[in-house]
Amino acid sequence: MRFEEARLSPEVLRAVGELKYEQMTEIQELVIPRAMKGEDVIGHSATGSGKTAAFAIPILEKIDRKGGLQALVISPTRELALQITEMTEQLGKYTGVRVATLYGGVSLNPQFDAVRISQIAVGTPGRLLDHLQRRTLDLRNLKILVIDEGDRLLDMGFLPDVGRILRQCPKQRQTLLFSATVPEEVKRIINSFMVNPVYLSSVKKTEEPKIQQFYMEVDRRKKIYAIEHILMKERPPSAIIFCNTQHMVHRLAQQLQRMRFPAAGIHGGLTQAERTRVMDRFKSGDVRVLVATDVAARGLDISGISHIINYDIPNSADDYTHRIGRTARAGKTGKAYSLIDQEDRQNMSVIMQEREELIRVDAGRAAPPRIQGDYT
Length: 376
Ligand code: AMP
Hints:
Helix content is 40%, strand content 17%. It is of the alpha/beta class and 376 residues long.
């Protein structure tokens, strides 16, 4: 559908024209008409699908330009919040609508002023709660609430905060939720806070993340060699190895460092400063192999991870999905390896019932190999 065919205001159409958008993207074509009608919508779409305009346009069309705060967008990261604000401001250029961006790590004062004069607020969960507690964010006249990237909010451990925000919103409102996947925890939010939502998906099978999944049967004592085999064979630019305990993370990270792999461990036992330091090194590529527990990895927002290795097998199929979902983001491909010994069999058999695509591969020599050349 062309934007001119939708019943948009001249102000929004003019901005759309300036952005040189002609045809709506698939998710826009699905979401915009339903959202404009006032329905609750679950938009299932990948990053880069044009979903920001899919919710920004209905917001701009539905709010009263002279009223107070009427729309709130919850975003998992400040980067995304800033992008949403930018897009909304571009589309709302001729509407006179103002957008406040509320995220942490910066001083509150300028945000107090911005939110007072804005009709739309875009923010990250922690800072939004902060404003709500200080009563500097008034949701009494809220008409539309958008939860963007629901799956990432979940990954980053923000869903409880999102629930807290939702409980402070007026019952009479419209809710739009966007997510590239719809895991159980996100479904719970949907069931508790949305009214007869319509589910609109623009994700085609071919667009789903492509993760090749392998498993190796290997003795616990020889898992380290299986890891060495994988790392030397594949030379992942960026890998996460999951262990079930902090102790194992610590031990494995040390072993890998001794073997001269650019590895570091992250777990809940480290101080926040230590965790930040490890993460900065991982993001910069200085550390290419991150050894982590599930809990430590939950708060991480990193793209470009090529490999996931399960040193220990997770306790549930959900945890498995979570772990491997950290690779193959944004349409890229990824590989996941699971190392199974006798003790892991039971957990693995549950996972394999859900994951028929798992392929068995050989663990290499799984014996002390001679490393040849550098790990580059
Ligand atoms: P998003 O998925 O919202 O991050 O958007 C991805 C990119 O697509 C952004 O750079 C948008 O400016 C662009 N975009 C969104 N809608 C359209 C459209 N209908 N036609 C062309 N580009 C678009």
